[in-house]
Each structure stands twice: as C-alpha cells, then as structure tokens.
Design a protein that fits this description.
13 strands, Rossmann fold, alpha/beta, 5-stranded mixed β-barrel, Nucleoside_phosphorylase_d, two-stranded antiparallel sheet
Length: about 290
C-alpha cells in the first residue's frame, strides 16, 4: 500500500519532514541526546564527521569512529518529540521515499540514549551511571498505538495501587530495554535501574514553584514503591517512549543515564559537564568495541 503524502511528509529536497534527513544521512547505530548542544559533545570524539544537518531542535551529526559509522541526533525533551524522532528514523531505513511503500527487507536500528537523570533512591550516587532495564511511562504514548504488551501487567497494577494513581491520568505502561544491545554496555560502572519517564519537569516530577502538584507526596510514594524486587530508581523524560516505539518497530534500544541529581538527598552534581562527558566516552568505547 502506498503511503499518502499527508502521512509521510517530505521536504522539497526529498528529506523527511522534521529531521530534515535523507536515508543516506544516517548510520544504523544512532545515539540520541536531548540537548542539541550535546550532539557536538559526542561527535567531537569521532575520527571524522561527514554530515551535519539540523532543523528545529533536531540536529544530526554522522561520522566514523574506530571504523564504525555512527549518527548522533538531538531529540529535544519529552516523549512527544520521541514519537517524531523514532517514527522518522524508522521511515528513513524502512520506507522507500520514491514509491512510498514499506520495504520488504527491514533494517533494525541500534538506538542508544545518552541522557541526564535524577535519582529518587538515596543510595544512588551523584555522577554515577545507570542503564534503564525497565521504563515506566506516564506519558500516554502507548495508548495511541496498537500493541499487546502484557509482560508487566501485575507490576503496573501494583504501582497504580501503591501510588493511588488518579484514574483521570493515562495508565502507566512498562517496557524493557533490548537485552542483546544492553549486553554490550554491561560494566561495573553502570548499574541497572527501573526508570520513570515523566511528562514534564515540574509538577509531573513533584516540583512546586508557584503551582502545586495535583497529587501531594507523589514522589515519596513513587520512591517507596517496591514489588517483585523492583523499585523506581530515577526520573527522566524520554526513555519509555524510546523503548515503546523501538519494540513496536522492531529496533534495539537502551537508555544510559548520568545521575546529576538525587531527589532523596537534595544533592546536585558539582561538575555535570564532566560527568556527562565521562558517560559519553564510556558509551562510545562500548559501541565501537562490540
């Protein structure tokens, strides 16, 4: 079936609408970062850079490192942006832009998020690294796609009961990382975690400036949740969307988090740039040595 122009939107140069990329522009191993300024923090380590393109908050660098072609792309903040980025990256490798038909031979991307995060358990140190083994999403993205994820229904139900989750909110959903890709990043410097993906930075994460959150004590309830030897370790804003769409589109994904804040102890990193740079270098070493 041919995909209509209103559904697969291309720019006048034939590039995908938001990312401004052509199929030849990306590698099959892609690092995602939230901040456009962090793209160059990653690509500065490449042996060569053969593509630099950007549009809106989406900046892409593609190059070579240790004989391996890599792309790094900024997603901006939030799972709404992840919905755009993941669908368009998939279209770049799995849809023929000339015929507007899905390719018979599908390409499977390796997606590695390198991001920052805040821990909610006091024992997780500032400037440490965490790989999200599971992600629980509060964003509602999963409700807009047909799927049959039922692996963690009991865990979702336990979380809803423990936190007294408001029925007017979207039902939380839990998705896992790709265990095969994660194996490449196993290291004594990286702990495994259960990450909560929030829909915002302030109220959705229990912060109060001039507006009070709708559910008081939500962070303490989340931190005290424990079920089947699992508890929420950290908060951020993209991982569940990346894991969800990667599963649905049959790509591999892991999320690496640099813990810059600890909400339980009130600490924040004294040198966040150095901590993030250390995670970037570790991730690149792991990616290019596998």
């Amino acid at each position: 079936m041919q995909i209509r122009a209103s559904e697969l939107i291309l720019n006048t140069d034939g590039s995908i609408y938001h990312l401004n990329l052509l199929p030849k522009d990306i590698a099959t191993t892609i690092i995602t970062v939230g901040d456009p300024d962090r793209v160059s923090d990653v690509s500065q380590h490449f042996d060569s850079i053969d593509l630099v393109k950007g549009k809106r908050e989406f900046l892409t660098h593609t190059g070579m490192l240790n004989g391996k072609r890599l792309s790094v792309i900024s997603t901006g903040i939030g799972t709404d942006n992840i919905d755009i980025v993941l669908n368009e990256l998939d279209a770049l490798v799995n849809i023929d832009f000339t015929t507007r038909r899905v390719n018979k031979n599908r390409i499977r991307l390796k997606l590695v998020r390198i991001g920052t995060s805040g821990a909610i358990q006091p024992e997780i140190p500032i400037d440490s690294f965490l790989m999200s083994e599971h992600a629980i999403g509060f964003d509602g993205l999963s409700h807009f796609y047909e799927h049959s994820f039922t692996k963690h229904t009991d865990l979702e139900d336990a979380f809803i009961a423990h936190t007294q989750w408001a029925t007017k909110k979207a039902r939380p959903y839990i998705v896992d990382f790709d265990s095969d890709l994660a194996a490449a990043f196993m290291d004594n410097r990286i702990r495994l975690g259960f990450t909560a993906t929030n829909t915002g930075f302030y109220g959705p994460q229990g912060r109060e400036l001039r507006l009070a959150p709708s559910q008081t004590g939500s962070m303490s309830k989340m931190a005290s949740f424990a079920h089947d030897n699992k508890q929420i370790t950290n908060l951020e804003m993209e991982t569940s969307g990346i894991y969800l769409l990667s599963k649905l589109l049959d790509h591999q994904a892991v999320s690496l988090n640099c813990i810059l804040a600890n909400r339980a102890t009130g600490e924040f990193s004294k040198n966040p740039e150095a901590a993030v740079q250390e995670l970037i270098q570790l991730a690149l070493t792991k990616l290019t040595s596998a």
